[in-house]
């Protein structure tokens, strides 16, 4: 099953199914980053609401009404955005909150969107990321993950969003971008790439190199899986930047131990190690450091001076989607 969120101004009541066993009607909350007109549906793979088993259940009329909602009645707007959830549901909802809040400024309504968040896909992406760290958790064996299954799952989500009326697809997930090209194959609508979005924003910032005669340098701080895939480095370099990565010693002695500390819930230790890793990059004459990891981004408090030297691809993705949506309506 997966969580599906339809944002549409025609309906004011939400139906939320927390699991296949418990479901209830609730009013929506801004804390969930959903505007008051959103509809939340927890559907099974057949795109129907789950059959009630125990606990509170919606009436038959409510179920029929929700199941009858079609892409034509819900999302016929030309600026509808489809979102594929990533490793963390929490991170996905934070992204959606930014998308809603930033597109609702100056009295404007937020842009219409559909969100698919599949726990099975979340788990596959997380396992793939964890397997990139041989020492993580000091495990004797790692759980194998077939990338073909991940690609197939991502494509299915993309196709479903297209059927729901999405005119633009977003993947607010660093790891998912490893298979960006494969997911794009056969798509009838564009997919924004986070690397391209952040590279364009850095170009528009008109920064100057810290060392005369050298190209403008951008640090890249991310997990081993994201760094090994190289898509952020490729996008930066194709837009005229020099990508600077943590060296082997920094990865082994600060970045990976920082992630291990997070998993042990030693947040202060993880935070201090991340600060050291960022400072190692900053002393190499980089203008900014791109944080290609949700966990790393959330480690630092909002008032941390190091954050002023960091940029977030997720934020660039949200701003690019809003700009696209505004252009569709102009």
UniProtKB/TrEMBL annotation:
Which Pfam families does the UniProt entry name for this protein? Asp_Glu_race
Q: Which GO terms describe its molecular function?
A: amino-acid racemase activity
Which keywords does UniProt give here? Isomerase
The yes or no answer to whether the keyword Kinase is present is no
Entry keyword Isomerase = yes
Q: Which domain of life is it from?
A: Eukaryota
Which PANTHER family does this entry report, sorted A to Z? ASPARTATE-GLUTAMATE RACEMASE FAMILY (PTHR21198:SF7), GLUTAMATE RACEMASE (PTHR21198)
Q: What is this protein called?
A: Aspartate-glutamate racemase family
